[in-house]
Amino acid sequence: MAYDLEEQEQLATLKAWWERYGNLTTWIIIIALAAYSGWAGWNYYQRNQTTQASALYEELQRAVEAKDNTKVQRAATDMESKFASTAYAPMSALVAAKSAFDANDAKTAKAQLQWAIEHGADEFKAIAKVRLAGLLLDEKAYDQALKALDGNVPPAFAGSVADRKGDILAAQNKLAEARTAYQAALDATDKKNPGRQLIQLKLEAIGGSVPADKPAKAAA
């Protein structure tokens, strides 16, 4: 069938456009398809990683329940090497650190906590920092313990970090600094938090005073 004049003009216009932009358009389409394919493949990879990591974490938990520290450490090491990008990895490191500590293996406990600090999200880092500082405090490695607490932490963990810092400074007999740290811990800890009372006791034990809560203003 012969094309009418308007169709021929449209075809000529399209041909001219394609001659000018055809190669560019083709490459754009190829790139877009490649990007979508990569995105879909990455999502599949992430889902697969998470599923496998979940199964390994369950295995680790069973080893914890059985008090099999050797198996716990092996599972945690596998998790860290194969599934480091998942949230299960720093979780496993924290669990493995506790298992090692209970087995009197402080060296492994510290190594697992350090891994969580270096690879975990901010919340896991904060927990690991406080626990690592506690282990170093027990070893009287005060400078290392304070260094472990360096850096920013999420606001929800600011009280725990300041409290641990107070413990370290008090152990060094740096009482003025310890009082400042404990006061910072109180300021950052919710009044409904049961741990707040212990912070108050520690502050008072080194000569600090806990200010009374201000009475609520009467309504006008």
Automatic annotation (TrEMBL):
A cellular component term from Gene Ontology for this protein is: plasma membrane
GO MF terms, alphabetically ordered:
protein-containing complex binding
List the keywords (alphabetical): Cell membrane, Chaperone, Membrane, Transmembrane, Transmembrane helix
Keyword Flavoprotein annotated? no
Q: Record keywords: Protein transport included?
A: no
Q: How does it sit in the membrane?
A: Single-pass membrane protein
**TM segment ranges:** 24-45
Q: Report the InterPro entries cross-referenced here.
A: SecYEG/CpoB_TPR, YfgM
- Give start-end of the signal peptide: none
Which segments constitute the Ancillary SecYEG translocon subunit/Cell division coordinator CpoB TPR domain? 15-207
- Where in this chain does the entry annotate a coiled-coil region? none
Q: Please state where this protein is localized.
A: Cell membrane; Membrane
Primary residence: membrane
Q: What is this protein called?
A: Ancillary SecYEG translocon subunit/Cell division coordinator CpoB TPR domain-containing protein
Give the species.
Duganella phyllosphaerae
What is the taxonomic lineage of the source species? Bacteria, Pseudomonadati, Pseudomonadota, Betaproteobacteria, Burkholderiales
